[in-house]
Amino acid sequence: MECIKHRINSIKKFCVVLLTAIVTLNSTCLIAEENGSWIDQIDNLRLAIDLSVRPQYDFKTDHFSHIESFGFDLHKVFSSANQGDIGTLILQGYFTKLNNVEKHPPFFHGENDLKFICRICNLNIALLDRGALNFRLGHYEIPFGLEYNLNTNGTLRQYSNGRDLGEKLDWGATANGEFSWGGYEVSANRGSGVDWTGDYSTYSFSGRVERTFSYSSFIGFSAFYGHLALPKTLKYVDRTRIGLDVSTDVGPFTFLGEISVGKDSSTETFNVLVEADIHDKTEKFMAYIQFKNTSHQLKHASWDSSIQTSLGLSFTPNRFWTLSGQWTHDYEVYTNAKRISLLQTQLRFRF
Q: pTM score, two decimals?
């Protein structure tokens, strides 16, 4: 009886956080619509304030938690009358607050941590005409796999880089370019991930080449090598990956997939992600299902696998806010790991 009461209370907390967020952010949206911005007067500059609330509930452990985020997203193109576009500056800074979040990324220091995160903060300088060669410096998404084309920062929908490479973002420099047939990016990274740490022994290199067929149909080839620190230990791993990713449209459906093979020192690894999504013509509504398999084989041991599915949807009624939900369920986990069945919702507001 006590267990049932506790679960009901957790669900009530989940609903209260979500409803409070809807009322608060919708009121802010109405104010934003009525007021113009001085930012609109600056050439080639976009600035957005970004707020989100994410309540989540794990049915396996009867555990409720929530995450709040507040930040800014600045995009500025520098240009001249004679040379055209000179460079592009992107600055995305966010305060993120965890509340009772037991499973969190290693760059957070506890389940109730408050942290400022520089998500994407870099300057991309044009070196050759028509985007053939650019030089990027700063903090950026590692060029590898589906993540390169699909912006998932601050969203429920995620792909493989975090769990496969061990890092999704890093500090460093890249050479990148675009052509009529596709594009490329190669990077030299610090290997420290989100934070600029004092450990200068880590590093990584990554690269991706893409052949583009249409707006959302492409095939990409990626490679990664890194000497990285293992979280919460004094150990290091030599990580190697080779990957292939694809995307294609069939009517209102988009089918995506990525696969990678490699090694973590002497441990063999194999990762697969397959997604199918459906969206309307206005792209205001989207629903998707993902299948994820992550496997590794220790030296002189058998393969150990994790199999997980995610079912999600997203609704964007206007340019200000997005309501999304996702259910992630473990069908198989690594030996001694705990299963999850996690329901997440997120209300995100940008103005």
A: 0.87
pLDDT along the chain (351 residues), means of 10: 51 49 47 50 85 97 96 94 87 97 92 96 95 96 94 91 92 96 97 90 97 91 97 92 97 96 96 97 94 92 94 95 97 92 97 91
How far is Cα 77 from Cα 44, in angstroms, rounded to an integer? 5
Write out the chain in H/E/C secondary structure. Answer: CHHHHHHHHHHHHHHHHHHHHHHHHHHHHHHHHHCCCHHHHCCCEEEEEEEEEEEEEECCCCEEEEEEEEEEEEEEEEEECCCEEEEEEEEEEEEEEEECCCCCCCCCCCCCCEEEEEEEEEEEEECCHHHCCEEEEEEEECCCCHHHCCCCCCCCCCCCHHHHHCCCEEEEEEEEEEECCEEEEEEEECCCCCCCCCCCCCEEEEEEEEEECCCCCEEEEEEEEEEEECCCCCCEEEEEEEEEEEEEEECCEEEEEEEEEEEECCEEEEEEEEEEEEECCCCCEEEEEEEEEEEEECCCCCEEEEEEEEEEEEECCCCCEEEEEEEEEEEECCCCCCCCEEEEEEEEEEC
At residue 49, the pLDDT reads: 96
Q: Tell me which residue has tokens 């452990």.
A: 61
CA–chain centroid gap for 275, Å, is 15
In which residue are the tokens 């990957």 written? 243
Cross-strand pairs, 256: 247, 275
Q: How much is the CA Rg of the chain, to the nearest whole Å?
A: 21
Distance CA 103, CA 4 (A): 23
Question: What is the pLDDT at residue 82?
Answer: 79
Under 8 Å CB-to-CB from 229, ≥6 apart: which residues? 191, 199, 201, 202, 235, 236
CA gap 332, 281 in Å, rounded: 36
d(CA 137, CA 215): 27
Measure the CA–CA gap between 164 and 307, rounded to whole angstroms.
14
* Arch. (CATH architecture) of 2-350: Beta Barrel (2.40)
